[in-house]
Amino acid sequence: MSFDFIKDKNKKVHFIGIGGISMSGLAAVLLNAGYRVSGSDAKESHILDNLRKLGAEIYIGHNSSNIKDADLVVYTAAIPEENPELSYARENSIHAMDRAEFLGHIMQGHKYNVAVAGTHGKTTATSMISHVALEGEVDPTILVGGELDIINGNFRVGNSEYFITEACEYKASFLKFFPYIGIILNIDADHLDYYRDIEHIEETFREFSHIVPKDGYLIGYAEDERVARILKDAPCNTLSYGFDHGDYTAKNISFDDTGCPNFDVYKGNKKLTSIALRVQGKHNILNALCTVIVGELFKISSEAIASGLHNFKGAHKRFEIKGTKNGVTVIDDYAHHPTEIKASLASAESYPHNKIYCIFQPHTYTRTKTLFEEFTKCFEGTEELILMDIYAAREKDTGEINSTMLGDAIRKTGLPCVNVHSHQEALEYVSAKLKPGDLLLTVGAGDVVLVGEMYLK
């Protein structure tokens, strides 16, 4: 693999925030192609260890000296303008490119690019499509926003014109991509630190539909009214899916005793195949339906599509069963938006259990503030909510919002809820409650997963 924008493999590419799930995948793609790569991140991780094994030069902490011999600097949308490495690059005329633009350049080296967009479910849908593409032997390059066992991580370098990736809408990043197949799973209010409102979000997804070429395909969820409007106006081929409406639908739905769906896929009135998933939740039927459409466009057989979907056991951190101790099952989920939390708890309800104890770590002050009311109503089904402090991520605490405020509002609804202020406090509190047959669900995009891992240890 070679890239026209970096013709000389002796040139060095530096990644600011290289330990991030998407940045690390891009760095690994370059390393596998024989390029020189360095990168910096705030703290150590197993991802950094893997990159070191591939030959990356890794720095812990951000310092201008890290990039003095770099020819190109890649950074994420979350990196602040005052980052010392980014500032140094600009002051010294080192070309700097954001992650989305860089990924767009890589996509231009392939013909059949699949960009999976939507507020929720991108990682799972991308992972399902990846499984089916591998089963169909199309030898794809894959970049996924989670770790997937079948590719032993979050990336795979293929030797074909097929490329599968997530397309994040944060700061309209996905508008820098080059999809042949664009997918819109759903449209919901999120990232309101960037978007004005839901109408602004919908308009940006509409722009995404216009970057799909006329001979390409836009796939969307027919029963999401915002997605349906975009499908109707899209200037390319369109295909839709849903439970009751769309070109592809799911019929004869049933669930096994662990909450995993079985269903038949119909294209119009014609049955295509039967699917037996090994991931929980009704929402995963929709992820599977869009995967079936991609499989058909890739001319993969119905048998291989069904087999690929059946072999998918979930991406890490997406309703991931972490283990069992003292009869208690521990499950971790990346859900950090009220809609995602509802879906996670619905999946937990269908899983064999006595009581569900949920530990939630809100992710970013902006999201907690803008979706405050929705967060007070999305935890139905849990015996008790253990609420951790807000995980700041890229933001600073302005004092406008905190987890105790959210806890007070949730307690007013009548749901048992307690605020805790450390992983250890969360562990000690929930351990005193748990009994054999209970389910411990850790929820959030930060480091709440550590509580479940501490319990299992």
Ordered list of secondary-structure elements with their pairings:
Blueprint: E1 12-16, H1 21-32, E2 36-41, H2 46-54, E3 57-60, E4 72-75, H3 84-91, E5 95-98, H4 99-107, E6 112-117, H5 122-135, E7 141-148, E8 153-156, E9 162-166, E10 181-184, H6 198-210, E11 217-221, H7 225-233, E12 237-242, E13 248-255, E14 261-267, E15 270-276, H8 283-297, H9 302-311, E16 320-325, E17 328-333, H10 338-350, E18 356-360, H11 365-370, H12 372-375, E19 384-387, H13 403-412, E20 417-419, H14 423-431, E21 439-443, H15 449-456
Parallel strand pairs: 1-2, 1-4, 2-3, 4-5, 6-9, 6-10, 7-9, 10-11, 11-12, 12-13, 17-21, 18-19, 18-21, 19-20
Antiparallel strand pairs: 7-8, 13-14, 14-15, 16-17
Describe this structure in words.
The chain has three domains: 12-102, Rossmann fold (3-Layer(aba) Sandwich), CATH 3.40.50; 110-311, UDP-N-acetylmuramoyl-L-alanine:D-glutamate ligase (3-Layer(aba) Sandwich); 320-456, Mur ligase, C-terminal domain (Protein-Tyrosine Phosphatase, Chain A, Alpha-Beta Complex). It contains 15 helices and 21 strands. The strands form three sheets. A ten-stranded mixed sheet has the order 8-7-9-6-10-11-12-13-14-15, with helices on both faces. The model has no long low-confidence stretch (mean pLDDT 94). β11, α7 and β12 form a beta-alpha-beta unit. The protein has helices spanning 21-32, 46-54, 84-91, 99-107, 122-135, 198-210, 225-233, 283-297, 302-311, 338-350, 365-370, 372-375, 403-412, 423-431, 449-456, and strands at residues 12-16, 36-41, 57-60, 72-75, 95-98, 112-117, 141-148, 153-156, 162-166, 181-184, 217-221, 237-242, 248-255, 261-267, 270-276, 320-325, 328-333, 356-360, 384-387, 417-419, 439-443. The chain is globular and about 60 Å long.
